Amino acid sequence: MKILIFFAMQEESKKTVEHFDFKKVTPTNSPLPYELFEQKIHGNEVFLCNAGIDSRFNVNAVGTVPAALTVYELATKLNVDIVINPGTAGGFKSRGGNIGDIYLASKVLFHHREIPMGPYEPYGIGTFDAYDFGQLDQSLHFKTGVFSSSDSLTCREHEIEFFNQHQVIVKEMEAGAIAYVCEQLKIPYLGVKSITDIVDGGRVTAEEFLENLETASKNLQQFLTALLESLKVL
Ligand code: SAH
């Protein structure tokens, strides 16, 4: 099986790259800034990428647009069978979320695409399917639930209503875009998010995020190690 692993940020991907001794693929011959690596793991051909550094702003190219472009380009070029999207996210203490938790997506929504015009309303929200985690090894430790994406790290008052109504447990900035690309390409989207900050917790998100980024990246590496073991070719 060919697997594409997409991280938004270099910092999130570093521990996983090192753990599996992924080899950098250069040059990728693309106008996009992503970094691409490859490695054979348990009989699978695994490609790992991060969105890369935006050349104008010199920060990680986070958010939906670079995520969609990168995953579309690599998934089609490399003809992958599944996209795994590990990353960091905001969790909700009102729904049992804690810093460091690992969540797998059951569905993926967009919370910033408000188009109250008949059938455009559900189109905006998206409600994309995700990989059926019932197929995974029972010994893997994870929680599950609804992910929701927008292009903002911050949370607006009325978005809390949306999160409660849709029982959102993970708020982040790429999943919806990648799940959309996967739906078009008819390949499964497997979202894996580690909680770095609590949306309904009262702390400043950017501060809490930076404090917990390293631990979350380590948790992702450990979970991915177990996940790739469970996806091994027998
Ligand atoms: N402040 C950070 C930038 C992080 S952007 C820095 O200085 O480096 C946020 C990234 O983390 C995105 O890729 C997003 O998917 C994820 N993320 C983590 N917590 C989030 C939250 N509460 N809301 C939205 N995205 C979040």
- CATH first level: which class? Alpha Beta
Which oligomeric form is depicted? single chain
Question: Could you name the CATH topology?
Answer: Rossmann fold
The description of the largest β-sheet is:
10 strands, mixed
Task: Indicate how many domains the architecture comprises.
Answer: 1
Bound chemical compounds: S-adenosyl-L-homocysteine
Give the overall form: globular
CATH-wise, what's the superfamily? Nucleoside phosphorylase domain
Task: Give an overview in words.
By secondary structure, this protein is an alpha/beta fold. The protein has a single domain, classed as 3-Layer(aba) Sandwich (Rossmann fold). 33% of the residues lie in helices and 28% in strands. The chain is built from 6 helices and 10 strands; from the N terminus they run βαβββαββαββαβαβα. Strands 1, 2, 3, 4, 5, 6, 7, 8, 9 and 10 form a 10-stranded mixed β-sheet that branches. Strand 3 (35-41) and strand 4 (44-50) form a beta hairpin. Helix 1 (10-20) runs parallel beside helix 6 (205-230) and helix 2 (64-78) runs parallel beside helix 5. The model has no long low-confidence stretch (mean pLDDT 96). The structure holds S-adenosyl-L-homocysteine (SAH). The site of S-adenosyl-L-homocysteine has 18 residues, from strand 5, strand 9, strand 10 and helix 6. S-adenosyl-L-homocysteine (SAH) binds at residues 8-9, 62, 87-90, 153, 171-174, 196-197, 199, 205-206, 209.
